[in-house]
DNA sequence: GTGTGCAGATTGTTGAACAATCCTGCAATG
DNA sequence: CATTGCAGGATTGTTCAACAATCTGCACAC
């Protein structure tokens, strides 16, 4: 073997090293809580009692509080001093704020289409195709998660892992709103056709039109969530 | 007094209520550490020993670890499992990533100029004026902080507190890079003229030109930082 | 009904303790 | 000389128990 090959091995292993580093128990507790919150098992507004939860999960209060802090940072929980942590109750103002951010990030990302590496563009196409497949088998929750994948892939076009991370947080917070209003399937149907429109625009080099389609999508989704949240 | 006045009092107090809520000691410790890191007192790469720091700051290890967690989320510290936390060493790749995000956010925010409330647009003008004043009295660090204010004000044009928060984090992380390379004053001079150009474009309704100026600014700043970091 | 004060519950913070892991230096091996 | 193996010390990961500070709810007085 040549030394070049050997170096290649080393760099590959170095890249996978992160997987080896076990996560802290706080991280795993946070994962479990995040699932429970996003699945709607713990309803928005509900307080998370440190003692009770700590005993249930068999972790100490300190570790649990670290997990709380993680989820507070993700805006899934809110922390009130000397009162405790609560599952966030999404307000209409939050939706407005959130979609203002999405408009900036996702429309900006769409404009990066021509500059983005082919692999990432392909990921966008794949996400749309996945959604279409799920629709054909009437798997509407599947269409929903494919939609999330689509928007994450679009964000990746910008080429910033920091933006990707922020979008991950924004989308998780959005799912909270879906939890309180219960998502309708007609909704996703609507979204999917807009995604298909976007990808056809992009593949034809009509970046400007794709951005307009994204803007329409965001406007419509925002209004749907805002009204749904107002009279829930 | 009328009931309207009374309501006004209440809403004012409600807004200031956050100031009354004392923060946790972890928050205050994090503030202190953040200042030390951004002032360059604790150099990038240096490890933060839990026991020593805890004794110096008179807080328990648990509380200190809470503060570490906060600053790790802000990307000022990095955490390696079973090894401890270290002040982040900014890499060129970080700069690239960071400026890709800034391009999306700040250029997108500039496009919101016409839709933004007048008060926020005025804040942008004020930030430029402040920088001009500081330049006249040769206060170059002052010009630097005015420049940060300018970019925060521009971000606020988008109308999303979540984006504002993200920009706050991005700018703090950027200051880390300045810490390791030592900021030059010629640099800020250059920036300030670009800011003046932007504001004149905006006041004349030439949003498109202002966005181009922002893009030029970001390109130039990124290159300056990347090269300065490579051969530090 | 409004305000006051007390008791119980919950959170904020600390310090100690032990297990798990990492780092360092040194000896042994080839 | 380079590498490996190993012991010992130092540091981190995690838990627990305790106390102070704060909040909440309820009874009571006016």
From TrEMBL, chains A, B:
<dbReference type="InterPro" id="IPR008920">
    <property type="entry name" value="TF_FadR/GntR_C"/>
</dbReference>
<dbReference type="InterPro" id="IPR000524">
    <property type="entry name" value="Tscrpt_reg_HTH_GntR"/>
</dbReference>
<feature type="domain" description="HTH gntR-type">
    <location>
        <begin position="23"/>
        <end position="90"/>
    </location>
</feature>
<keyword id="KW-0805">Transcription regulation</keyword>
<dbReference type="InterPro" id="IPR036388">
    <property type="entry name" value="WH-like_DNA-bd_sf"/>
</dbReference>
<keyword id="KW-0804">Transcription</keyword>
<dbReference type="Pfam" id="PF00392">
    <property type="entry name" value="GntR"/>
</dbReference>
<protein>
    <submittedName>
        <fullName>GntR family transcriptional regulator</fullName>
    </submittedName>
</protein>
<keyword id="KW-0238">DNA-binding</keyword>
<dbReference type="InterPro" id="IPR011711">
    <property type="entry name" value="GntR_C"/>
</dbReference>
<dbReference type="Pfam" id="PF07729">
    <property type="entry name" value="FCD"/>
</dbReference>
<dbReference type="InterPro" id="IPR036390">
    <property type="entry name" value="WH_DNA-bd_sf"/>
</dbReference>
